[in-house]
Design a protein that fits this description.
about 65% helix, five-stranded mixed beta sheet, membrane, transmembrane, single chain, Zincin-like, about 300 residues
Length: about 300
């Protein structure tokens, strides 16, 4: 009984500490957002980078007692209810995608990337304060990749099958791409852009695509104003994701990977997505939206 009480006390203290830290960051966020708004556009990225690293340090402090498994480029942290074989699969998969994604964007992280493995969607959702109905397999957040343990969502006892599914349908390529985009652009990107890049990268590397019927592009599409301002709140998330993928596929087909990198570099300088698109494609967001709509119509078979 004494051991149980100490365990409960430790859990409560851990929760209270995390709660206090999050409250502190909430207050600091309001102050920092106000400060960032007053900075020149090319200086805001530095402020964002400092803020991101502060949140990252706080999060890693909260998981400091988890077991760590290290590779050349990643450090996987996992709790006692996740098997070491699962953690190693997460690490090996992350390392597998590190080189191709990094080379695509000419980016090399200066430090090992932390990955936190959660043993249930409730624990993952609980950390972010999400409702239980959320079912994300992975999340990129402030320099950290968070994923569900493979056995949480893969219904098999066959190690080879688990590995095949996790590598080819799991979140590692997708979430690492989010991290790369965030660091290169210093956080200055619209949601549709990073979601499109993450899907495009995993499509190239594994062939995986979101194929929900609700995302059929042969219907009224969202405006890019909606995709930029309200992405997470759009009622048809499948369509929002499919449009994002199509937008990046259009950029890649017409302006190449070099064009995408140039857009990201302009964003890193504090330029708006409208200005970045105008510089590379010759038209701003409105013209890009019109051109993309026509391109989708002529290439609809690619997104069936």
């Amino acid at each position: 009984m004494a051991n149980i009480n100490r365990k409960l006390l430790r859990s409560e203290s851990h929760f209270n500490l995390r709660e206090k830290v999050f409250k502190l960051f909430a207050v600091l966020s309001v102050v920092l957002i106000a400060v960032f708004a007053c900075l020149p556009e090319n200086a805001r990225g530095y402020g964002y980078s400092l803020y991101r690293e502060a949140i990252k340090m706080s999060t890693l402090f909260n998981v400091r007692n988890m077991t760590a498994l290290e590779g050349p480029h990643f450090v996987v942290k996992y709790p006692s209810d996740v098997e070491v074989a699962e953690a190693r699969l997460v690490l090996n998969t992350a390392e597998k995608f590190y080189t191709p994604v990094s080379e695509d964007y000419n980016y090399s992280p200066s430090k090992k990337i932390p990955v936190i493995v959660y043993s249930s969607k409730e624990k993952l959702n609980g950390f972010f304060g999400w409702p239980a109905s959320e079912s994300a397999m992975g999340v990129y957040w402030s320099g950290i990749i968070c994923v569900l343990s493979p056995k949480t969502w893969i219904d098999s006892d066959n190690p080879d099958k688990i590995e095949d599914i996790f590598v080819n349908s799991g979140p590692m390529a997708h979430e690492y791409t989010h991290l790369v985009v965030d660091y290169i652009t210093r956080g200055n990107y619209p949601r549709w852009f990073t979601e499109g890049l993450a899907q495009y990268e995993e499509y190239k590397l594994t062939g995986f695509r979101f194929t929900e019927t609700g995302g059929n592009l042969n219907q009224d599409l969202y405006s890019f104003n909606d995709l930029t301002q309200n992405f997470d709140y759009l009622p048809n998330q499948s369509l929002a994701y499919r449009q994002s993928f199509a937008a990046v596929k259009y950029l890649a087909d017409n302006h190449g990977q070099e064009g995408i990198i140039k857009i990201m570099n302009l964003l890193s300088q504090g330029k708006s997505i409208d200005a970045a698109l105008r510089s590379i494609t010759g038209t701003g967001v409105d013209g890009f939206e019109d051109n993309l709509t026509h391109w989708i119509f002529n290439n609809i078979s690619q997104f069936g």
